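Onboarding guide, step 5: your first structure request.
Type a short instruction followed by the sequence, for example:

Predict the 3D structure of this protein.
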Amino acid sequence: MKKFWWSVVFKVGCMRTPLYIYRLLKLPKQIKSLLLNEYNPTTSWVNKNTELVMDGFPGSGNSFSANVIKYYQPGNLRTANHLHSPLLIIRAIELGLPVVVFIREPLAAVISANRRMPWSDKMQSLKIYPQFYRMLMPYAGKFVVSDFERTITDLNSVIIELNEQFDCKFCEIPTNEELAGFKPTKATKEKKQIIEELKQELLEKNGVDACLREAQHVYEEFIKLTRL
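The system replies with structure tokens like these:
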């Protein structure tokens, strides 16, 4: 049931769906947060009170980035992150909010996401990847982009760009080499083996070559477009 519901919400959030339909799907978790009287940035609805939106396809460095950026901001920064939905990114853009979009090469992103969320469907994720970033292409220039290399080696440059583009005053963070307790962990032998097994499992599926080519093409086009 968990796999089915996650797949439905993820797929709808990556389609040109009326926003109210997607909101209805997210409502159960939002109600749970309200009942527990807690603010959950992964289920919160993007609105004018949101101070920063950080999002990208699953497995693109979302957790590392969100944890680091929020840690170095004073007070309780009201963020929306881990939404994994271009619909909500577009909503944030329309509201004029500061937005950073994370991106990683498709195969690496899909495998990383599946390793942490075993219920996710690798083939479905690979098919959705192009939709995710194609929806954002018409809005190039209205958000900051951080590819995986930038995310894990120079996250402070993202803060600097956010401040310049959106006239914000987010606190800068140390260089990634100086981050205490936030450095991306090096892959162990066991972790590398799991990643390789997941990769081979995906690459053996029918039709994967065409899906991977399309996803890689969109990745390269998105990077090129957003760096103009």
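Each response can be followed by summary notes, for example: The chain has a mean pLDDT of 86.
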